Amino acid sequence: METEKVKCLIIGSGPAGYTAAIYAGRANLAPVVYAGLQLGGQLTTTTEVENFPGYPAGIGGPELMEDLRKQAERFGADIRYGVATAADLSAKPYKITIDEEKVIEAETIIIATGATAKYLGLEDEKKYAGMGVSACATCDGFFYRKKVVAVVGGGDTACEEASYLASLASKVYLIVRKPYLRASKVMQERVMNNEKIEVLFEHNAVGLFGENGVEGVHLVKRMGEADEERYDVAIDGFFLAIGHQPNSDIFKPYLDTDEVGYILTEPGTPRTKVPGVFAAGDVADPHYRQAITAAASGCMAAIEAERYLQK
Ligand code: NDP
């Protein structure tokens, strides 16, 4: 297999990867970035980004990522298409296989592979992507002021998103497949005591409808039971909050992860337990998952990589 030696390999092209590339480029580390499945990462699936500092009028997600890419390239980042398909972090130089056809031998690695929001797997989720279907209330909630939305999920994320959306929307349906919420007590109480939130226990969303975007959801109550009921509810927005899957599988044999798969780092730093290997952005962040926090941790990872190489 073809091999190539690089000083600093960055895997992922979201805000964490590109910010790491800007800093690593300016530090003369000649970073090589492999973009992953989705050039620009999760933000390229968002329409408007209004909470990234520096854009008082907001900016389109794809446009923001394009700007970050150009900024990284300006400082010499070599940004390439390709997906990391295997890793060997057992000895230096660390080896990352790209698309099962090429091996990069890297002195330092910044893992910025992100996380992927889970979807239910309905055809309609794809049909209405960007037209009423979202997996990020903080990103898109603002567009549903005084409108009716539904959130799917019964965990802390779903409760948090439902509460957040209730501060904007006129009504929020929380669609929960079980007869109870999995979320922590405090989050459950917040949801149950919010007049704008109606919790639909034992409900599954099985489809969406609408002419120009989402206008409603097809629901099934007590699916598969003798008293199963099917009905529709009018909504303007459909939010998935059924968990995220961090893209960390290939690193798991070498790095510590939590039970979900988030890479564990030394608290307050992007350092993993393997010297010279850093994790930045959503792949190591179950808590904040914001573009700006991802960018910040990408910056930290690049500074750490530079210091590591100096040693
Ligand atoms: P969780 O895995 O905790 O919850 C996922 C929820 O989605 C569950 O209610 C689950 O239902 C439901 N779900 C999963 N798949 C489907 C499906 N196919 N159809 C319908 N419902 C489905 O994920 P979260 O993202 O909520 O939380 C992840 C972690 O992050 C947790 O540890 C959580 O505590 C933490 N967190 C903490 C916060 C805080 O403390 N402020 C905020 C956000 C997250 P079921 O219960 O039936 O499996």
TrEMBL record:
Q: Does the keyword Methyltransferase apply?
A: no
Record carries keyword Metal-binding: no
What region holds the FAD/NAD(P)-binding domain? 7-298
Keyword terms, alphabetized: Disulfide bond, FAD, Flavoprotein, NADP, Oxidoreductase, Redox-active center
Q: Which reaction does it catalyse?
A: [thioredoxin]-dithiol + NADP(+) = [thioredoxin]-disulfide + NADPH + H(+)
**Pfam (any one):** Pyr_redox_2
Any binding details for the cofactor? Binds 1 FAD per subunit.
InterPro entries in alphabetical order: FAD/NAD-bd_sf, FAD/NAD-binding_dom, Ferredoxin-NADP_redctase_2, Pyr_nucl-diS_OxRdtase_2_AS, Thioredox_Rdtase
Tell me the enzyme class: oxidoreductase
Q: What is its EC number?
A: 1.8.1.9
| Subunit field text | Homodimer.
This chain belongs to which protein, by name? Thioredoxin reductase
The opening ranks of the lineage are: Bacteria, Pseudomonadati, Bacteroidota, Bacteroidia, Bacteroidales
